Amino acid sequence: MTNNIYFIANWKMYGGTSSLTSLNRLINLSKLKKYNNAKIIYFPPFTLIRDFVKKFSKTKISIGGQNCHHIKDYGPFTGSISPKMLKELGSRYVMLGHSENRISGESDYDINKKIRSALNKNLKIIFCIGETLKERRKKITHSVLKKQINRGLKGVKNCRDIVIAYEPVWSIGTGIIPQDKELQMNVKKIRKIILNRTKFKLPILYGGSVNNKNISTLKNISGINGFLIGSASQNTKKFIDIIKKTIN
Ligand code: PGA
């Protein structure tokens, strides 16, 4: 892999302030010249964003929010957080379209509204897409991905700040990863769909059960610009191992 390699740590609904000390080793690693092209971005729960921003203040590690409301500033939406608020906390990114939110009712239309609001507030987007097991069995993966991308990016002119995270839903948290050939084909398809929309060469990441063992295989899949890592990223030792094995 050349250029930037993304390592996204998605902490989901885990972690407390005591988790922060485990990050010291990662900070040291991120300062080594060898890892200059490692683009490390943490997505802690909202409650920890401020602490993470402070912790990483003298590093090139960025922070993002795991979701946001589609109203960009303020509004009567109990329990929600807006792009403006994320920005004020020091986030530079927001993750949108994660299957754990799609499953609880978020539609492509909702995701599109969120993407446009977040871009308007100068947040960069990690845009998650991926087919379910049922869709895969029905052999409609490519049309599902196409629909998710085209609906999610509808009316979005500035695609420069978008990173695509391809995450087969059946792979998230299951320990199962796609076969090399299948993954390569799907990434190629995504690249083709993107190229029809924008001249920017958007990074395409893979997510779903990435760990410090299967990374040795995954890093060789062509066309992938990095990884979105859930459970293995909550263990800093494993996360560091993933980075080291990718960039060796
Ligand atoms: P996982 O999660 O690495 O635990 O499968 C991936 C994700 O959060 O998307």
Describe the structure.
There is one protein chain. This protein is of the alpha/beta class. The protein is built from 10 helices and 8 strands. The protein has helices at 24-30, 49-55, 83-89, 99-102, 108-120, 133-137, 141-152, 180-195, 215-218, 236-246; strands at residues 5-10, 38-43, 62-65, 93-96, 124-129, 162-166, 204-207, 226-229. α7 runs parallel beside α8 (180-195). The chain starts with a strand and ends with a helix. The mean pLDDT is 96. The structure holds 2-phosphoglycolic acid (PGA). 2-phosphoglycolic acid is lined by residues 10, 167, 172-173, 207-210, 228-232. Residues 10, 167, 172-173, 207-210, 228-232 line the site of 2-phosphoglycolic acid.
Secondary-structure map:
Blueprint: E1 5-10, H1 24-30, E2 38-43, H2 49-55, E3 62-65, H3 83-89, E4 93-96, H4 99-102, H5 108-120, E5 124-129, H6 133-137, H7 141-152, E6 162-166, H8 180-195, E7 204-207, H9 215-218, E8 226-229, H10 236-246
Helix pairs in contact: 5-7, 7-8
Bound molecules: 2-phosphoglycolic acid.
